[in-house]
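Onboarding guide, step 5: your first structure request.
Type a short instruction followed by the sequence, for example:

Predict the 3D structure of this protein.
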Amino acid sequence: MPTVYEAGKQYTGPESTERPLSMSRHETSPTTVQPAGNHRPNACCFCWCCCCSCSWNEDRERAWRASRDTKLETIPNCEACLKPTPDEVQGWAQSFDKLMKNPAGRNVFREFLRTEYSEENMLFWLACEELKNECNKHTIDEKARMIYEDYISILSPKEVSLDSRVREVINKKMQEPSTHTFDDAQLQIYTLMHRDSYPRFLNSAIYRALQQSVSRSSSES
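The system replies with structure tokens like these:
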């Protein structure tokens, strides 16, 4: 593969000899993943939420995941976390920042984004947070390249929605990646989730069921 950082040129992503057929963001890949018996390779760790993906159609979920697998394998299907308290769950309705700072909150919000086929927004945000924690130059270069290929490239099925100004900034910064290469893009996606997805999440069956679940558990204890 040619180097992604060529002096004097903007980074335009990995070269490809064949452009894949365009696909709507709301369509699934034609790739079919055959289920292996009753084994659940991506068992949901968010078991205390009665509306998690465990109740979804298995074949549809597996096929959808197969088409959107990320190269950043360090990002788990859901983050390890404790069961949220009723106060925490109620606090998520008061502030999007509270929701995003809480691992359990991010998990349930991510489950909701899956139902809207926009989980890539959360995945991109998490990948940027992970990049900021890196110190090794080689690792930073490699992760920045993978983030670009996964979420910025127009050839990716997980491409996030960014304006032309932010894309131009990223292309310039990719000549010499750093932990802050995607800061502008991360803020834009955070704002998009806040303004677009968050209000619908608060009115969703997933959030209402979680409120009832933690309230019931609290009253029984």
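Each response can be followed by summary notes, for example: The two ends are 58 Å apart (CA to CA).
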